[in-house]
């Protein structure tokens, strides 16, 4: 992981997910000190939460965009 990672809030879903995958792989395959492992775990938790929020926001947008179409189908 780089010395100064990009703030999680600035990452796109794809960037956050890719970094999360990288962290998981690193924790599974590499020997880390306890402090390094905890720092990676904390970053991973933030990334997972950010991805979940982005997905929820995308789902809400899709529902909002689909709502008028659904209402038209039920009126007729």
Word description of this protein:
With 76 residues, the chain is mostly helical. The protein has one domain: Helix Hairpins (Orthogonal Bundle). 78% of the residues lie in helices and 0% in strands. Helix 1 packs antiparallel against helix 2. The longest helix is centred in the last third of the chain and has 42 residues. The radius of gyration is 18 Å and the shape is elongated. The model has no long low-confidence stretch (mean pLDDT 90).
CATH topology: Helix Hairpins
Largest sheet report: none
- Annotation field: number of helices: 2
Helix/strand order: HH
* CATH architectural type: Orthogonal Bundle
Helix/sheet category: mainly alpha
First-residue to last-residue Cα separation: 56 Å
Portion of residues in beta strands equals under 5%
User: How would you sum up the global shape?
Assistant: elongated
Mean pLDDT: 90
Radius of gyration: 18 Å
| Number of E-state strands | 0
Number of domains: 1
State the name of the first-level CATH class. Answer: Mainly Alpha
Q: Unreliable stretches, pLDDT < 50, 5 or more residues?
A: none
Helix percentage range: over 70%
